[in-house]
């Protein structure tokens, strides 16, 4: 539905192992007598990548949970789970549950991650899972075939500007929600985060842990913070990285999205400033006034695409989406600078587009990253119907969690106002959720957890925030720490979505917190290990 949505899952780097520490005493593996008993997970050995030899350390399962928790003995949905068994069973502490974000991000293969280092891997079973309605877990689908989906989504413009584009996009959103109402089934009524958290607590009991150890990224921070307030006495260690503002998100979806757009603007502005400071050739876009050059490109694309030498076109939608996507990962920022410079040179000299400035070290291929292919559907026959392989969990969760107006024209009006304040991402973000206006199971009718958020948890929650996180701006991390009843904030001076894996100092804190339960000292500001624009 949107590049912002698709890119929300954090792209995290490998976390190096820390020095071995004294073994922590395992947590009590016997669930409290006050808790209702649940069936244990029926694990079966599995190979996460059948194209490679089986490492023999993984198990998989599909764990049944109630579709509707008001009817616990009724219909069930299956939650797909994978675990990587602790490499040192004699020192095993428990299970570390992982969620990558989204909503709609698949966490199943996160059991294979090495992000948490060898000490964590030796003492915890790493457990990844697809939340209800996502990927392998009873995926919620609004379409029967890919062709049905394309017929609707291809009419949506990522950044609609003209009246015709706006009207067609809103009409397509209405057709989308009509399809969801027709095809999604009863699961669509039970996709709010409160149900994901209930599933998580049931899985926690099913693996035998008395308390939860969890790491959630991006939207996963809403899962973690909701758990902390629904089950405050069951918190062993919860890491939330790339934080949402739970209170705002659950009370005013439109205002949350406006502030989210501002986070992208702040990250973009910092990227352009650091590019200007580094200068060319360290930053390929660093010659001249980077802000003025960027604004020239964006403002031109509002009315006309830029045609590249190979015939492909950079449009306002493709440009905005690719810039947003690049801001999610520090590793993509130097390539983004090349793409911007190559596109700018084409824009400046369309008649001599192939003559790129040698000092910029950019090429036509760099510019192509900001383009979309010219449609060529007329040159091929219509294919036979194919299965719809995606799912629609992103909208299903957001529309149930976040209250929105029921009039979709509100989004078009918001786009006009937000664009004045946030010229690059305001209009883009405003059109992320018009479907929620007509969603068949909206937040106003849904069972959902909307607070309070200040329950005192049995152990401290570790909140991590980047100063220039585009998707979940730093103020959200500050508010998360303030809203929770027992939390500490660690900050990282980085332009990126989520921070775990980018700083060895942070990695050590994460390991000690997970293994020993030692919360980091408050008020720390860390630096990432890598530079955005290293010396050439």
From TrEMBL:
Protein's name according to its UniProt entry: Alpha/beta hydrolase
Ranges where the Peptidase S33 tripeptidyl aminopeptidase-like C-terminal domain occurs: 423-523
Entry's transmembrane regions: none
GO molecular function, one term: hydrolase activity
Keywords carried by this UniProt record: Hydrolase, Signal
Family statement: Belongs to the peptidase S33 family.
Signal peptide: 1-21
InterPro entries for this protein: AB_hydrolase_1, AB_hydrolase_fold, Pept_S33_TAP-like_C, Serine_prot/Carboxylest_S33
Species lineage: Bacteria, Bacillati, Actinomycetota, Actinomycetes, Kitasatosporales
Domain of life of the native organism: Bacteria
Organism field: Kitasatospora xanthocidica
Domain AB hydrolase-1 residue range list: 96-275
């Amino acid at each position: 539905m949107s590049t912002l949505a698709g890119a929300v899952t954090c792209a995290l780097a490998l976390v190096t192992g820390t020095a071995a520490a004294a073994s922590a005493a395992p947590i009590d593996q016997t669930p409290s007598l006050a808790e209702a008993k649940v069936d244990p997970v029926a694990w079966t050995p599995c190979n996460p990548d059948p194209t490679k030899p089986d490492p023999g350390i993984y198990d998989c399962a599909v764990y049944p949970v109630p579709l509707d928790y008001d009817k616990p003995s009724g219909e069930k949905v299956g939650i797909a789970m994978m675990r990587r068994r602790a490499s040192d069973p004699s020192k095993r502490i428990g299970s570390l549950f992982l969620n990558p974000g989204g909503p709609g991000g698949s966490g199943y293969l996160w059991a294979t991650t090495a992000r948490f280092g060898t000490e964590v891997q030796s003492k915890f079973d790493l457990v990844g899972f697809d939340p209800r309605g996502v990927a392998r877990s009873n995926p919620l689908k609004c379409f029967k075939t890919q062709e049905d989906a394309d017929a609707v989504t291809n009419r949506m413009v990522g950044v609609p500007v003209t009246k015709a584009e706006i009207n067609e996009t809103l009409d397509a959103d209405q057709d989308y929600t009509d399809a969801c109402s027709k095809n999604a089934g009863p699961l669509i009524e039970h996709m709010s985060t409160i149900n994901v958290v209930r599933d998580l607590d049931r899985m926690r009991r099913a693996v035998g842990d008395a308390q939860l150890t969890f790491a959630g990224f991006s939207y996963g921070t809403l899962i973690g913070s909701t758990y902390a307030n629904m089950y405050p006495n069951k918190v062993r260690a919860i890491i939330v990285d790339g934080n949402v503002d739970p209170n705002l998100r659950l009370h005013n979806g439109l205002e949350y999205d406006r502030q989210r757009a501002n986070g992208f603007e702040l990250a973009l502005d910092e990227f352009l400033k650091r590019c200007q400071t580094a200068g060319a050739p360290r930053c390929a876009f660093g010659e001249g006034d980077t802000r003025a050059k960027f604004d020239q490109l964006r403002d031109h694309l509002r009315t006309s695409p830029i045609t590249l030498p190979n015939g492909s076109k950079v449009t306002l939608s493709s440009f905005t989406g690719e810039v947003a996507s690049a801001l999610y990962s520090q590793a993509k920022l130097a390539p983004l600078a090349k793409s911007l410079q190559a596109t700018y040179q084409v824009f400046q000299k369309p008649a001599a587009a192939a003559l790129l400035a040698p000092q910029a070290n950019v090429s036509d291929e760099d510019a192509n990253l900001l383009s979309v292919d010219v449609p060529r559907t007329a040159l091929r026959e219509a294919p036979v119907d194919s299965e719809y392989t995606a799912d629609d969990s992103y909208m299903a969760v957001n529309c149930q969690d976040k209250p929105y107006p029921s009039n979709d024209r509100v989004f078009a009006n918001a786009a006009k106002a937000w664009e004045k304040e946030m010229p690059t991402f305001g209009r883009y973000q405003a059109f992320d959720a018009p479907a929620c206006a007509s969603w068949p199971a909206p937040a106003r009718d849904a069972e959902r957890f909307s607070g309070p958020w200040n329950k005192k948890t049995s152990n401290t929650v570790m909140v991590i925030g980047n100063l220039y996180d585009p998707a979940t701006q730093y103020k959200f991390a500050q508010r998360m720490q303030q809203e929770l009843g027992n939390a500490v904030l660690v900050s990282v001076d980085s332009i990126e979505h989520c921070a775990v894996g980018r700083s060895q100092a942070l990695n050590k804190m994460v390991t000690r917190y997970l293994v020993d339960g030692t919360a980091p000292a408050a008020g720390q500001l860390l630096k990432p290990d890598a530079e955005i624009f290293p010396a050439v």
